[in-house]
Amino acid sequence: MKKIYILLTMVFSLCSTSAQIITFNGCHGLFNDQNFIFNNTATDGNGKKIYITTPVDGDQSCGGLGTCEFKIQWNNALTRWEFLADSGNGDFINPYLIYYNSTGNNSAANPPNTSTGSWVENVLVTENACGGNLTPSNSVMTGDLHTSTLAVNDFSKGQIQMFPNPVLDYITIKGIDNAKNIVIINMEGQEILKTDFKDRLDVTQLQKGVYFLRINDTYGKSYSLKFIKK
């Protein structure tokens, strides 16, 4: 786990001093209380920005745990933002997944902040060393981040409708073209349900609570709506 800790240390210090920079400070059970700076280095084929810590040459301090490099990027296959740690050589061929967020505004080109959706700790790698999901109370993440999950009125200039909300049994969805499938995610970032798109969705089996309904279309775009299950 020493190598993993080294990688993890770089992953969580996102602070920004310009529109293309993210700065992180957190996970103090694993990393020292210091800032890690991520620069927007490229844009992927899905129009999502890629952020990498600098330097990426083995000279980045990891709070006494060695040297490592970190990356924040979009995973289009799993439709989520990922916080990755490299093994120390900067090639990110087999990086470690530290956090992921699939419940922000996934149509945005930049990742969400810690108040938007859920940045879920990957405890299989961290062994709970970071103390759970990222929140504004246990970390600071600032800079080139988006700050809101799409609501009904944000979709297609108000054409998309989801009702009722709160819901007891069935959700009705109107106003979206080329929809492919629907995913329901809980507040812990766990996928509860995935099904082909239908404009009337049965949610009677869900427990009471707050959920995100994500609609993926045939163009690779996704839209997130928050709803309450009664």
TrEMBL record:
Source organism of the structure: Epilithonimonas pallida
Full protein name: Por secretion system C-terminal sorting domain-containing protein
Secretion system C-terminal sorting domain location: 162-223
Keyword terms of this UniProt record: Signal
Domain of life (superkingdom): Bacteria
Pfam families: Por_Secre_tail
InterPro entries the record matches: Secre_tail
Signal peptide start and end residues: 1-21
